[in-house]
Amino acid sequence: MIKERQRDYDHYGIKADWRTLGQYFARLRTQGLGINLGTYIGATSVREMIIGYGNRAPSPDELKRMQALVASGMQDGALGLSTALEYAPAPYASTDELIALAQVAARYGGIYATHMRSEGDAETAALEEAFRISTEAHIPLEIFHLKVSGHTNWGHADQLIARIDAARARGIDATADTYAYTAWENDFSAFVPPWAHDGGTAELLARLKDPAARARIRKDMLTPSREWDNEWLEIKGPQDVLVTAVRNKELLKYEGKRLNEIAAEWHEDPIDALCDFLLKDGAGTQVAVFGMSEPDVELILRQPWVSIDNDASGTSPDGILGTERPHPRAYGTFPRILRRFVHDEHQLTLPDAIRKFSALPAQREHLADRGVLKQGMWADVVVFDPATVRDAATYEEPNRLSVGMQYVLVNGVPVIDQGKMTGARPGHILYGPGLQAAQPH
Q1: Is there a contact between 108 and 71 (Cβ–Cβ < 8 Å)?
Q2: Average pLDDT in the chain
């Protein structure tokens, strides 16, 4: 796993000196945190540890070892089990494999949080899979960044919500979250079908170089399928793909450009330009993809069981992170909801929005001492002006801090004071309910 990610570690100047979740938490405690941080144990990480990057099922012994890793992660303080079933090698996992891992997380009081196998043409089947995992593992379900992807599916959010409401009515503990933008961000390589990722990044790049394999990739990208989440057919064209971050410094000039612009500059067909860009960047590129409709986004946002996520890495306008051009959600998610959906459009009340930011997710993660303003709780407090708060980040200029957030306190200590960062690092690790007593809390 370290070898597979070494290029990223080198890019960010990170020494991967941890091997377990407990060691990772210890590293964070040593260096200090400006935020509170909790995390899941990733089902894909567990698969990579035991199986690697190949497309095959685990043997019975391997599955037991994977379950033991989940147990260890839960004992170290993970909040539950997470999956991102669109991104190889995650799609290689069967539903039964995921149930077996989720059952372990459930024993420790965790939740199952998932980026479902499909958010487009096969979303109904993906949702039913998530319900089955929740039911058979006896574990609460959180659907990451609930959406309706693909222009041919636009307008179907009401059907998606009805299915979740019906599941909740029959006893499935299902909730979701949203970042309320019409573009998602992910790996550029997610446009390539899962079989091409079999064996890891090196094998993917080899296939992109091979004419026969590339022809098969192209055919699959142009062929409707419910077997994988085909993002190429979910967008209206290459103009809907925006490059946000690259690893190869020679490609920095393409950050902020659309795929159609790059294809035109290279005098290539857009799919060839996509494949060649992955080759040049070692499959390390991130992109924003405009594949959702505003009415669907708004309807999902208004559901009482939907909280707010930003689905973005921690980002700074300075240093190495400031050289990238992330999705504007990295900077603007929460102020944007306060400004647009509360202040301007009245789609949410201010108390509704604050609940979706704080109390609802804290409740979901069993954080009984956080999420509301009350004596005896940890003082995680944001002081803002409802009349002036707004996001400033755009797709064209994403590295812009929001306006109107005057004070931010983490565990009672100001990390933002009169709009300025203090440099304080008062953050805590947020441990899950399975934490063993021997671990520091």
Answers
A1: yes
A2: 95
